[in-house]
Structure formats: structure tokens, C-alpha cells
Write a structure and sequence with these properties.
With 200 residues, the chain is mainly α. The protein contains six helices and two strands, in the order ααααβαβα.
């Protein structure tokens, strides 16, 4: 089967970069990234009339709401009622536009999800398939017990060799621990447990 003949250091650094990127994306969360992409798309890329109309009507609603709050419903009842009818009409139009925009958002979210997968998942699998038999580095004899050296060399190498599978496993675990250590101080505090009465 075809394998990529890459320098071991290039494989180590490339896989490290991709795994760090993958961890950052998982910490950020796909939905947050999709929301940011959607906001960027609606602001700079979209040519959709529905989105432009939606934004225009939202601005109208904000303006009419401010105007309505500035007057008294008792003192200027006719004007207040007219503004209220206009607001109801605009809100109904915004609701209809929102439904048509939602289908466009689903397409953008789907494309974003696909691009994220291509960015971080596909390269990992390509490396796992085509670089799986490249020895990345070797352990000095006697550094670890024989059975551990044998286990680390699985599934393709002789004892004492470290390949991509073992390297990625180690990097993923180190990144997970680093993420935990960094996020721990910012995590929500947990209340100290209190023993119920009668228990020691």
C-alpha cells in the first residue's frame, strides 16, 4: 500500500500542530464557531435580500419601540395605538423572514461543519493511513521496561520504536491535561459539601 515518505520531524510537527488546532476547536465549541461564521457571512458576504430586509426591519422595530416608550399611552392614545399596530405588523414580517433565513443558516452551518472536519479530522486520518509505518524516533535501550517498549511500538514496529499512533496518543493526553490545568482556575466554584445531621 502507498505510504508517504516524509521526514519524521515533519510528521511530528505537523501532527502536533493539527492536534493543538483540534483541541482549540473542541474547547471553543462547534456551535460558537458556526455562530461567528454566520455573523461574518451576514455582515460581509451575503447577497440575500431576506437578510437585508430582516436587518432593516429589526432597526425599524427598535426605532418604533423607542418612540412608543417615549410617549404616554393615556395622553397620546391614538399615536401610541398606531405605533403598536405598526410594531405588530413589522414583528409578523420579521417572523416570516426569520423562517426563510433559517434555511440559509442551516446551509452555512453545514458548510462550516464540513470545513472544520476537513481542516482537523481529514489530515489526521490521512497521516494515520499513509504515515503509519514511519518510525518517528527510537528509545534508548533500558530506558523503559521491555514489556512497555513492546507495547509502545504497537501495532507496526519493533520494540523500542515510537510510531505515529503512540505519538498522537501521548500528545492528545498531554493536551487534555494542559487544557484542564488552564481551564481549572476559571471553572465555576463548587460549593463545599456539608454532612447531614447525624452523620460523622
Amino acid at each position: 500500500m502507498f505510504t508517504l515518505d516524509l521526514d519524521p520531524y515533519a510528521i511530528i510537527l505537523t501532527s502536533l500542530f493539527i492536534l493543538i488546532l483540534q483541541k482549540l476547536l473542541s474547547i471553543t465549541g462547534k456551535s460558537k464557531i458556526q455562530n461567528q461564521v454566520w455573523q461574518f457571512y451576514t455582515r460581509y458576504l451575503s447577497q440575500s435580500k431576506s437578510i437585508k430586509l430582516y436587518n432593516g426591519k429589526q432597526n425599524e422595530i427598535r426605532g418604533l419601540t423607542r418612540e412608543q416608550k417615549a410617549i404616554s399611552a393615556q395622553d397620546q392614545y391614538a399615536k401610541w395605538t398606531k405605533l403598536n399596530r405598526s410594531l405588530d405588523k413589522l414583528k409578523k414580517e420579521v417572523q416570516e423572514l426569520s423562517e426563510s433565513i433559517q434555511s440559509e443558516k442551516l446551509k452555512v452551518d453545514g458548510l462550516t461543519s464540513l470545513l472544520l472536519s476537513l481542516l482537523v479530522t481529514l489530515p489526521i486520518w490521512v497521516m494515520r493511513i499513509f504515515c503509519r509505518k514511519t518510525a518517528l524516533f527510537y528509545l534508548r535501550k533500558g530506558v523503559l521496561p521491555d514489556y512497555l517498549e513492546w507495547w509502545l511500538a504497537l501495532p507496526f514496529f519493533k520494540s523500542g520504536t515510537i510510531g505515529l499512533t503512540c505519538w498522537m496518543f501521548a500528545v492528545n493526553n498531554v493536551l487534555a491535561m494542559a487544557a484542564l490545568l488552564i481551564s481549572f482556575p476559571f471553572a465555576k466554584a463548587v460549593a463545599k459539601p456539608v454532612n447531614p445531621k447525624g452523620r460523622s
